[in-house]
Amino acid sequence: MSYLGIDYGTKRIGVAFSSEDNSLAFPLKIVAAGNGAVGEIAAIARERGAGEIVVGESNDFAGKPNAVMKEIHAFAEALKAEGFVVTFEPEFLTSAAALRGQEAVEKHLDASAAALILQSFLDRMKNHG
Asked: What is the pTM (predicted TM-score) of this model?
């Protein structure tokens, strides 16, 4: 089973995928947030054989859920309704880290942030699995 990583945003949703051996995460694409986003991401997950989707859990500096978490939870529930297992992975400043980690254009930022979220999950699974 492979994994899909998601960096949810109110305008753009970054998508990443895991390597065949689930050791590395790679940025894949940006999906426009909105009505068709869940269907598009579900199609990507099925195409890639992802049985689990890892969604970034957005908290503030005090560790409490950000205002966007309500939307993230609704998004996760919609993915579950599509038949996917959804796991939350804490994210903290992943967009800033993605920007530092690449000199490329900002349009790839969300997908890179999704890869950082997924890589964190994969590393944790490897170390505690």
From this structure: 0.85
